[in-house]
Specification:
Elements: H1 6-32, H2 37-60, H3 70-93, H4 96-103, H5 105-118, H6 124-140, H7 149-172, H8 178-199, H9 208-234, H10 237-240, H11 246-259, H12 265-286
Helix pairs in contact: 1-3, 1-9, 1-11, 2-8, 2-9, 3-7, 3-8, 4-7, 4-11, 5-6, 5-7, 6-12
Transmembrane segments: 38-58, 70-94, 100-118, 125-144, 150-168, 180-199, 211-232, 239-259, 265-283
Pfam families: EamA
Organism: Paragemmobacter straminiformis
Length: 287
């Protein structure tokens, strides 16, 4: 086997994964502008659960759902469910590019908390990257930027849940399999949002197009997770981490294509700072 091509393959897989996630953000915005968030995300998680079970259960059997730290796995799943809810609420009233850029505060917060919580070392590069990233988000959130206050609040709440989710993922990755974590988050998200959807039924009729887009949304989210998993089998995390920030580029581009929204100069500068600082911090930390 020619292993020299594996790093490039890993990078290509992450590029595809970030595109899938950005496309799912656009579909989420389109659907949540017409329907409550809970029914939309319920279908997404149900499709995710069905696909993960269908693909992995035949070869893994009971190992697919077997975990050791049940309470932490459940807490992680709840954090992701709340992150999905707040992301949907933010995208409902916010442009895709700016929303994704704000949400990318989470990796910086995880980086800063990794020392006291996980016992990992945070170097000068990490601190500088975090400060520049925060400065970029402040440019996006500046007074007069025209962003919806409720959407901004939901995006910032999402950062909190996303941070908790990523830290729990790092803790649980020491004892649990990636497949089991993926299956449990899909199951818990499906349960939570099916219950939530029963209390917030759609006001407008769910058309065949809407249902098709909900199915596509679940497929895109599942595809993104599988592509990321495959990528990290092909190349080291240090090489792939900077590529994750391509998500911001895809989000801004697809937001312009789908909704004709172009961020203003200050917002673009802020998004660029978030992207550049994240890439630089990831490269320096793994160097």
């Amino acid at each position: 086997m020619n292993t020299s091509a594996r790093p490039l393959k890993g990078i290509v897989l992450v590029v595809m994964a970030t595109f899938a996630f950005a496309a799912s953000d656009v579909v989420t915005k389109h659907l949540t502008m017409r329907h409550p968030v809970a029914p939309v995300v319920a279908v997404r998680y149900a499709v995710n659960l069905a696909l993960v079970t269908f693909i992995l259960w035949p070869r893994m059997g009971q190992r697919l759902w077997r975990v050791e730290r049940h309470w932490l796995v459940t807490l992680r799943g709840l954090c992701l469910a709340m992150a999905s809810l707040t992301m949907g609420l933010a995208l409902r009233v916010m442009p895709v590019g700016e929303t994704v850029a704000i949400v990318y505060l989470a990796p910086f917060v995880v980086l800063l908390l990794s020392a006291p919580v996980l016992g990992e070392k945070v170097g000068v590069a990490g601190w500088l990257g975090a400060m520049v990233g925060f400065a970029g988000v402040l440019l996006i959130l500046r007074p007069g930027g025209g962003l919806d206050p409720w959407g901004v609040t939901m995006a910032l709440v999402n950062v909190g849940f996303g941070t908790a989710y990523h830290i729990l993922t790092r803790l649980l990755s020491r004892t649990e399999s990636t497949a089991a974590l993926l299956w449990h988050t899909a199951l818990l998200g499906t349960i939570c949002f099916v219950i939530g959807a029963s209390f917030t039924p759609p006001v407008l009729p769910v058309t065949a197009q809407d249902l098709g887009l909900m199915l596509i949304l679940g497929s895109l989210a599942t595809l993104g997770h599988f592509l990321f998993t495959a990528a990290y089998r092909e190349a080291p995390a240090g090489l792939l981490a900077p590529v994750n920030y391509l998500h911001l580029v895809w989000a801004a581009g697809l937001g312009w294509f789908a909704f004709d929204h172009i961020p203003d100069g200050m917002a673009l500068a802020g998004m660029a700072l978030v992207c550049i600082s994240g890439v630089w911090a990831a490269v320096r930390r793994k160097a």
